[in-house]
Amino acid sequence: MKLDSWLLEILACPNCGGGLRADDGADELVCTGSCAYAYPVRDDIPVLLVDEARTPAS
Q1: pTM of the complete model
Q2: Which of 42, 45, 49, 57 lies closest to 15, judged by CA?
Q3: What are phi and psi of 23, to 5 degrees?
Q4: Other CB atoms closer than 10 Å to residue 16's CB: what's the count?
Q5: Where are the beta strands (DSSP E) in the chain?
Q6: What is the spatial distance between Cα 5 and Cα 55, in angstroms, rounded to a whole number?
Q7: pLDDT category, 58, cuts 50, 70, 90?
Q8: What is the rounded average pLDDT of the residues 13-32?
Q9: Residue 8: exposure state from Cβ atoms within 10 A (0-12, 13-18, ≥19)
Q10: Cα 53 to Cα 55: distance, rounded to the nearest angstrom
Q11: CA–CA separation, 24 vs 2, rounded Å?
């Protein structure tokens, strides 16, 4: 997964507004806020849709 550090600085979780951190092993962006949703990254493009997110319970 290739994401620039400046991009991670400006992206926010669409569910709770928290920050996002890259999880390279799972090709996901994980929310560091209250919801902890994990958003997939496909072809180096973050899919920041709540409907596509993996919840902490799944």
Answers
A1: 0.90
A2: 49
A3: -115, 90
A4: 14
A5: 20-23, 28-31, 38-42, 45-46
A6: 24
A7: low
A8: 94
A9: middle
A10: 6
A11: 9
